[in-house]
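Last lecture ended with a question: if I hand you only a sequence, what can you say about the shape of the protein? Today we answer it with a concrete record. The protein is Heme biosynthesis protein HemY. Below, first the input exactly as provided, then the predicted structure, then a couple of comments.
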Amino acid sequence: MRAALWLLVLFGVAVAGALFAGNNQGSVTLFWPPYRIDLSLNLVVLLLVGAFFVVHAAMRALSALFDLPRQALRWRTQQKERAMHAALLDAISHLLAGRFIRARKSAEAVLEQETSLTASGQKPANAAQLRAIAHLLAAESAQALQDRAAREDHFKRALEQASARDAQETRDGALLRAARWALEDRDPGAAMKLLLGLPQGAGRRTLALRTRLRASRQAGQPLEALETARLLAKHHAFSEVAAQSILRGLAIDLLNGSYDVAQLQRAWADLEPSERLMPEVAIHAAQRLTTLRGEARLAREWLLPAWESQSELGDNLRVKLVCALEEGLDSLDGAWLARIEAAQKAHPRDATLQYLAGMACMKRQLWGKAQQLLTQAALGLQDPGLHRNAWRALAALAEQREDASAAALAWKRAAGE
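The predicted structure:
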């Protein structure tokens, strides 16, 4: 459509020119004493148009001639910039390939090229960010080469260059990399200090939170690590299974850091409800409370959710749950005794529940029922510890009945003979 319109316009111009030139009888007379020159108006118009084009071409030629030095300078600058960017790409490639010496040399070449350009008055765009990245690459290579002095020097220079507002992201990246280097050097305190230098928004990024998690775990700060892991789980930084495993491990670490009952209760209160419902955490907390000579009633209170979901637990966890409850059988109340009896009756072939019910009956001095349950349990228990304890309890019951042969047999079974 556009070509057709241009064609129509050209036809119109041609027709107008033909009408003007064909019927134009005008003339132009030039007086140059003693001469007189008569020219047609059409010829004069053509001469003027021709002269315009000649003068225009001459001016463009002169402009191009005088512009040659500037073009040559720009060409040289472009060649230096291309060499600088090529060196930057080489530094990144060598670093990824594990050729750290070459990566360091390429990064230093970038800095030399940039310095040369700046000295010649041809400062490249984003020069501060470019220098900061080059220093970071050199520092990363120095870290891989265990040259800490060079690493610190390049890192300080990178921070100086990244202080400009247009290089804020580069500064954040430099602090994160430095925090990772501190963790590799087993210096979590320095890593935490570097992370505190991040802006609030950058400090909540997934990479920063992962680094904070590693630093707090190295520093032996389970509560800080647990809070960070919660944020990471909230941001879906881990899979659901991995998040549960990490939170479970950190919760257990937090409980292990308690050395009296008051500290343990505070640690338990610091846990979120979902973490308290984890059977592994609840069982470990109850065992820890028993070790610290805490109240068995409180331990059973913590174990209640795990007990109610015991059918979903694996064999190993069920054994740990039974062991945790066994520690407080001396002060077992009627409600818990009813729960144990109901569970044992609901699963009469479960050797683990038979063992727990038998031990509870033994504590209540129900000797006959205890012997019956423990005998059945001893024949079916797979856990070596519970199996040994069951035979020891049967030996004690036999000695109480003054049945020496049964007691001797039970002690032999307990010893594994």
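Comments.
1. Residues 256 and 322 are 20 Å apart (CA to CA).
2. The mean pLDDT is 86.
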